[in-house]
Amino acid sequence: MQVAVLASGSKGNATFIELDGKKLLIDAGISARRIRQELEGIGQRVEELDGVFITHEHGDHISGLVTLTKKYGVQVYSRPETFRAMSCYRELPIECINPIIDRVRLGRVTVRAFDIPHDAANPVGYVVQGSSRCVVATDMGFVDSSLQEMLEGARVMVLETNHDVEMLKNGSYPYSLKKRILGARGHLSNRDAALAVAGLRQRPRKLLLAHLSESNNLPELARETVQEVFRQRGIGDVELYLTDQNKCTCIQL
Fold it and tell me: Any idea what DSSP says for residue 198?
């Protein structure tokens, strides 16, 4: 399995997963040109993508979608409500649109959509399951028991560590935006993400910290917060990786 977070943050998100002969993209929130360039940098080709799976309709998750579909004919999968809420929906070729509710099977790989709490039409995370298991879960206000169950058993996990609570509270954002981010349909803090992973029965072998805020977080602060929670609970078997808005983070398993 190869997992490459091509970009992650408020300016754009895209994650590539290769598993059992299938090549998938979770979100397309950067330009199609950059997606092509980043894929080429890890020895992959955009023309070989078997599908793009969209988590929700916000611009930092779909900005490259129109070009990907029109230029390369890439198939797009998402919830029906998400498609209808996309600002670019009418520009997408109808033959590329694949509404899903629960899951879709591509060869030996199953991609399952699961509900996440975020302020979007019908937002989801994804479980990519084959000979191994990868979970991508970002843009969520909290982790409840049903979401925790979806995180179980992933060998590789891409999980949101959006903000440090104190940095956000003391930062320059207006109160309404702070309230949204901290709310139940906002974004996950460093500590809450760490606690979610610490509470798993089967923790990931590799954990990629994703969707870090440029204003309300620092890469090393995110890493240190997660490491401290793990130390307190005697967890030493999870490898941590920081993702970035401007460069690819690629791992092999």
Answer: H
pTM here is 0.96
Burial class of residue 244, CB neighbours in 10 A (0-12, 13-18, 19+):
middle
Q: How many Å apart are CA 84 and CA 120, to the nearest integer?
A: 12
Phi, psi of 215 (to 5 degrees): -100, -30
Nearest to 119 by CA among 28, 216, 26, 187: 187
Q: What is the pLDDT of residue 253?
A: 87
Element housing 184 (H / E): none
In the numeric block, the tokens 């937002």 are attached to 123
Beta strands 103-106 and 97-99 are unpaired
CA atoms within 13 Å, Cβ hemisphere of 13: 28
Nearest Cα neighbor of 210 from 154, 136, 160 is 160
Query: Bridge-partner residues for 26, per DSSP?
Result: 15, 53
SS3 212: coil
Helix, strand, coil percent content, the chain, rounded in steps of 5: 30, 25, 40
Determine how many CB atoms are found less than 10 A away from the CB of residue 170.
Answer: 11
Rounded Cα–Cα distance for residues 54 and 155 (Å) = 21
Task: Report how far residue 20's alpha carbon sits from residue 48's, in angstroms, rounded to the nearest whole number.
Answer: 14
**Mean pLDDT rounded to a whole number for the chain:** 97
Q: Which residues contact 130 (CB under 8 A, 6 or more apart)?
A: 19, 20, 22, 108, 109, 110
Residue-wise pLDDT for 162-177, tens only, equals 999 999 999 999 999 9
